[in-house]
Amino acid sequence: MVNVEFRDVDLRIRKEVILQDVNLTFEPGKIYGLLGRNGAGKTTLLSLIATYRKVTSGTLTVAGENPYENEDIMPLVDFLHQEDYSEESTTVEDYLKLSKRYKSSFDTDYALSLLDEYNINLKKQMMELSRGQQAAVDASLGLATMSPVVLFDEVTNGMDAPSREKFYSQVLNAKNRENRIIVLSTHIVSEMDYLFDEVIIIHHGKVLVDEPVDEFLERGYQVTGNASDIDAYSKDKRVVKARTLGPTKAAAILGRLSDEDASLMEEMNLTYSVMRMQDLFINMTEDRSGKEHTHEQQ
């Protein structure tokens, strides 16, 4: 099986540090949620795996080899991202034929079954399709390549809600999923969180989080109760958001809940709930300096 490993990887472009000290391992059979604010370095990281760029220092391996300009490794990886089809006269049907010609593992029947769910007219030229339909074609072809490593970079952009739900279902039921690495880079965290086995957060070019979903969700919680009790409970904790309604207050707290915290909440008659993944992601990547990080390379 194919693994992807980053070890102490840095990437600099024109002396600017884009990625720094990246250590990650991607394993088959898992769906990875790659999260990060605009410019964090998500697309750049995927482009390294896809052999679009060469690391500046450290080591990146795909199937144990350096992927850059490696003809043996290139067929193992597919990178699906937004394409400009405004002048593309090739039909969807011909796109399938081209995919099969250039990638022997491409499963045409599987691609047709995926596209059928979106009611795509195969005779239409790509430029005649709506942006959402073009995205659906990209997504379907990505799954049907049967490549061991499939990287989806904001691939649902342009899709309407029903089409996005179809894609999510297709990912969960992807053919030969147990032997494939699937990475979903997205900003629609609230819709995709149930898909992920592992969460990776890139922040300012560094890996902020790399852990299973259940462990990640333990990083924050919300506690509700009498306002004075909430203030007393949270006085030494990192409260990122609070709401008060009459005598009741709810506080969102970053940090793992200890046994001592749980006992204290029970004594104070406070209620506990897990923070949503999207809220946790937003709060963990809040840039309180007010500075924006905008150097992500496409």
UniProtKB/TrEMBL annotation:
Keywords attached to this entry: ATP-binding, Nucleotide-binding
Record PROSITE patterns: ABC_TRANSPORTER_2 (PS50893)
UniProt KW Nucleotide-binding keyword: yes
InterPro entries reported for this sequence: AAA+_ATPase (IPR003593), ABC_transporter-like_ATP-bd (IPR003439), P-loop_NTPase (IPR027417)
Pfam families assigned to the protein according to its UniProt record, in alphabetical order: ABC_tran
Superkingdom of the source species: Bacteria
GO molecular function per UniProt: ATP binding; ATP hydrolysis activity
Domain ABC transporter, residue spans: 4-229
Family annotation (Gene3D superfamilies): P-loop containing nucleotide triphosphate hydrolases (3.40.50.300)
SMART domains per record: AAA
UniProt name for this protein: ABC-2 type transport system ATP-binding protein
Organism of this sequence: Salinicoccus kekensis
Highest classification ranks of the organism: Bacteria, Bacillati, Bacillota, Bacilli, Bacillales
